[in-house]
Design brief:
mainly alpha, about 140 residues, 6 helices
Amino acid sequence: MLPPAVNDRGDIGSGVLKTAGLVAVILGVFLALSSWDGLYDAIDLPKANPALSAQIGGAALIAVGYLLWVAGSRTELIGIVAAAGAVLYGVLAVLIAAWVIFRSNLELGIDTQGEVTLIVIAVILAGLALALARPALEERPIE
């Protein structure tokens, strides 16, 4: 087992990865709870149908969140994991934006609150994708 490495370029990459990991775990738990209709009704978001697919995606996001968190303290993983996270969050932001733009609220089963929530989530995910792109593109010395 390798000892944890310290990010010698400061904590920017580490902090971004840990933040992205925390967001992934939060989204993963939210998706894992997709069979709880009351939660989705309360925040006016579309329900997953079937809930099983969202729960599987939630489990995967929890695992990705763990990977992002751990990579934040291991210099040798920062670049590649940040790149993977940037792709993940970028694709998720584009998917959510496409659903909001090309589908009506009626088709999505949401009202204005749900539309605003989806837009905010897409903006946050796009911001995380851009933030992760920075450490992904930094050159790191080979250890």
